[in-house]
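Hey everyone, long-time lurker, first post.

I ran two proteins through the pipeline my lab uses and got sequence/structure pairs for each. Pasting them in order. The first:
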Amino acid sequence: MESDKIKVGLIGLNPDSQWASVSHIPALKLLSNKFDIIGVANSTHESAKKAAAAFQIPNAFENAQMLVESNDIDLVVITVKVAYHFELVKAALEAGKHVYCEHPLGNGLEETKTLAALAKSKNVIAVVGTQMVVAPELLYLAQLINEGYVGKVLSTTLIGSGGSWGDETVIANYYLYEKENGATMLTIPLGHTLAGLTKVLGGFNQLTARMSSNFKNVNIKDTGAIKPKTSEDQIMVIGTLQSGAAVTVHYRGGISRATNFLWEINGSKGDIQVTAPLGHGQQAQLTIHGARGDETELKPLTVPAEMYQGLTGNPVIGNVAQIYKRLAADIRNNTRTAPSFEDAAFLHELLNRIEISALFNGPYVTG
């Protein structure tokens, strides 16, 4: 790279209503000493020019292929819908670019494994946006567990609400309700949160899963249409972790008037409770409480201030910025500290196991 800064090209940037505009753009601006946003490409040239003007990006590429082939781009950031990830990521990797792709990396396990293998063969930095695993609260939680705050972990329980996947939506989000698009409650909110859970407590050994739907159709509020819904709105998993700890997970569609995120870790010497206002652990402000020994009531466990150094108070921006910070260091030092495509494949193996168990109504055991 000729410049000290990493030159970024974004594919999928909408100034009106898309994830990249509220997370990636402010995160990159927060780290402007490390990154330069050089270009953008969207589904049309007109859309790219609109985004470039809105965010003062110097180059609006005519299409994605021109962006990934440009000598002015070091890092390709892909924030489009899951169904388009495979072709765009593959093109960027084949052009020898570093890649940051939002989770889910692929539409299903095979696409994910193929992209992970290709990234490894190209020896580039290939990062997936499972940003919960780098959230300051999760890093502190992992530290507490590793230092023996709860002693031996005996069990863990997780309850969450998906937010979407109830009985109504808007037309722009209807793709979430069609399972074949790969953007389901399993792959997005639960997938992100399972990435965090396994980062702290380790992988699953045995699991049994059930997935079901309360609603076979969804009301499209802004058009009045009724459309079919093929994505499940209830996901239940029980099993054991590789450590031997028992695990129970229940995610449900919509929003609860009561609890939307509750994660408990129970151990031989203490207990920890993690809460949040929504079930998307990757973008939620997590709060940690705990008690151990002779303590009879939970108390706040405050994340050390230095873990938030250089971040904003918004976890949506801050957690994405955490990935970019690690990505920059990985490019400079040829390390692998950011969540990688191999991590994405590991996570999708777990999601696939849940789907298989739910499909066949029986346990799925490793090895």
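...and the second, right after it:
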Amino acid sequence: MRISSYVTDGGVKSYGLVEGSAVRDVGEAFRNRFPTLCAALAAGALADLTDAAASSREVPLDTVVLLPPIDNPDKILCIGLNYMTHIKETGREAPSHPSIFTRYPSSLVGHAEPMVRPSVSTWFDFEGELAVVIGRAGRAIPEARAMEHVAGYTCFNDGSVRDYQRHTTQFWAGKNFDRSGSMGPWLVTADEMGDPAAQSMVTRLNGEVVQSTPISDLAFDIPKLIAYLSTVCELLPGDVIATGTPSGVGLFREPKLFMKAGDRIEVEISGIGTLSNPIVDES
């Protein structure tokens, strides 16, 4: 099942099941019970969405504005240095524990919406990632049970303002400029996706491949991340875990390669689809 969140041409926020070039607006039927996809996950209502889809209104995808699939998560937890190839290109040693930073929902846009290069920097980098969406709450989740807490997966672009990221040892400043990252185009449920480690990811800048990796190259796999993160805090339905980026980022290229207005960046993950965003300058 593929589920998108969006704003209709009438300005109404909703969500629905993607079928080809259209979406079944199940959010309309559940407006009072589950106003957002995050609320539906918290209620364990995915099966209800499937049942409602057959009688729900069909809306062409090209008439809606896609939002991040989870547009109001309690937490967006991002993992740094989590692909072996990326660790190697930075010249660092493999970490003994996951490196974690957070992003805010205001820093993300959905598929096809512009990512914004801030006026204070030209060091605007791409980072294609697989994002995991939590479906069941849990604290101190053991690795062996971790995948039971996954609702599904989506594509993520951890757009990074590199000079601000390097102002201190904390990544926060470079990761939270408004509308600097993206997530989408939809949530693919765990049953449809299958084993994420069997998938692969490609990032393209203006049609040219800049990153390419098997998901199996993760230094800390998804069960390890869920176990570690849930030791620190309770994971809630709708929480997003961005699992890290592979080698090929613009910062470590010679010459450096950063995104600019007029560019288009794409993150494609097998089993999910393609997240595509134009780049614009902050007005």
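Reply from user beta_strand_b:
Welcome! Quick read of the second one: Residues 76-281 form a domain with the Fumarylacetoacetate hydrolase; domain 2 fold (CATH 3.90.850.10). Residues 134 and 150 are 5 Å apart (CA to CA).
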